């Protein structure tokens, strides 16, 4: 490894979210003599849970299913205060992991990597940060995150606004909503999972003057039903951890919820309604994931369930016109990621909370004083919040300029000069097992393209295990080079595309899950970017690869 001007590491990890700290713990444990470093853009560990500090930010999946399963002591110690943990508590948990495992000494904060070069003679990567400092690494683990690159809306006049404006994932750290939102007119653009949590929490802030939610696409949403976990309950739950993690391992997305094997038409109307009502009354994702098995493949089944959910919205929203605006018309329930809510629909019953349905009147521009809509109305605002989502899955990679093998760029649009040589042309990923990519030797990815996302911590633990095993293999055999063969990449990428065909109704809808973000150049058409075969199948394929002596990978 080069040692001169650069800092040299056996493994460099980029990102100190759950993926990065899990990687650090395992790499350090497995290879005690290796030099390992984590580079992180933020000021602390936490990733998603560090950046997203907007009001109402919390889990939609059960807290009990989210912790690191390998740290039994911490599971014994930790008290999840709520069934669905808040951002603040989750961030505390992640910081506790970092302290307990003494991780801080190996993490460099406030450092943003801008460029990466592959050196084919030395078999190393050289990374350059914003300040021009260089880091050389034999192996590199990308823990960049799949929802970490925020996007602002492509709306004219965005720089004209004179009030305070920020993206939800860049929430001002010193902002106190009860103090700073007092008597203010707040606007929120975006009604995805983030917008729904932000709007609900802000609507409950008694001091605000008004809240205007700018909705381009209505989103299906259903009750979270959060509750506190007492000390006594937590003591009982601790005894169930093994069973909880076992259950996660048996479901397709590693959540605690499993589809009902029956088809919608297999049961009577009464039985169908009974299951739906039961799920609606229960906490968590069951109402998305535990429904009849054909709900997201059979159009009629989906329409029936969507009607049920639409009526729930009508029951909760007093103004029938507002209720109709809040009911999605262009996609069925569950075909996008279903945000869970805690009083979202009731927020619109408040006299100072307004829904601006952008299907009826679109945004013309942002002005110095607010938002001008196509009906000529200027919505005056003091604060403008962008809950406009992320350049998902490939976005964090795109923020780095890559000089991969043969000096190839990683991402470029097909109509650009670099398009012909790019590895992921037009953001279309090609990978082997989602963990490695062609022409990107010695790079391993946690939670990247072509991996199953679902319950993130469960996927992270698995990916880190597979990567550690592979690094062990390299170490044992004295290999300093590993890259997937083109054949293996083509086969795996084709498999990912084939799997996506089963998610029929989801594939017909634009969302970050189908690779669309109209605010990002080149992301206006759908593409397959995530693995929708089950996590069980994914684990099996990774295990088969290992057992085959890593067929599909080239070593040197
Ligand atoms: P999402 O789910 O991508 O939502 C972004 C929202 O912002 C969505 O409602 C968009 O409307 C809206 N948006 C984006 N650009 C515009 C413009 N130009 N005008 C109006 N509205 C706009 O991001 P989230 O942060 O909510 O959630 C991401 C994931 O994080 C979530 O799924 C969880 O897994 C955690 P659109 O629907 O595109 O019409």
Q: Helix and strand layout, with pairings?
A:
Layout (H helix, E strand, L loop, with lengths): L6 E8 L3 H13 L5 E4 L8 H4 L20 H6 L9 H14 L6 E2 L4 E7 L4 E6 L4 E9 L21 E4 L9 H4 L4 E5 L3 H11 L6 E6 L6 E2 L7 H8 L2 H10 L18 H13 L4 H4 L9 H18 L3 H7 L13 E2 L2 H4 L5 E5 L5 E4 L3 E4 L4 E3 L2 E4 L8 H4 L2 E3 L7 E2 L11 E2 L17 E3 L10 H22 L4 E3 L1 H15 L34 H13 L5 E3 L1
Parallel strand pairs: 1-2, 1-6, 2-3, 4-17, 6-20, 7-16, 8-9, 8-16, 9-12, 10-11, 18-19
Antiparallel strand pairs: 4-5, 5-6, 13-14, 14-15, 21-22
Helix pairs in contact: 1-15, 15-17
The structure holds ligand NA7.
The site of ligand NA7 has 23 residues, from helix 6.
Give a short synopsis of this structure.
By secondary structure, this protein is an alpha/beta fold. The chain is 31% helix and 16% strand. It is built from 17 helices and 22 strands.
The percentage of residues in β strands lies in: 15-25%
Distinct bound molecules: ligand NA7
What ranges have pLDDT less than 50 throughout 5 or more consecutive residues?
Answer: none
Name the average pLDDT: 96
Helical residues, percent: 25-40%
Strand pairing plus helix content: what structural class? Answer: alpha/beta
Q: What's the overall geometry?
A: globular
List keywords for this structure.
556 residues; alpha/beta; 17 helices; five-stranded parallel beta sheet; eight-stranded mixed beta sheet; globular; binds ligand NA7
Give an account of the 3D structure:
- This protein is an alpha/beta fold.
- The protein has 17 helices and 22 strands.
- Helix 15 runs parallel beside helix 17.
- It is globular, with a radius of gyration of 24 Å.
- The two termini are 16 Å apart.
- Bound molecules: ligand NA7.
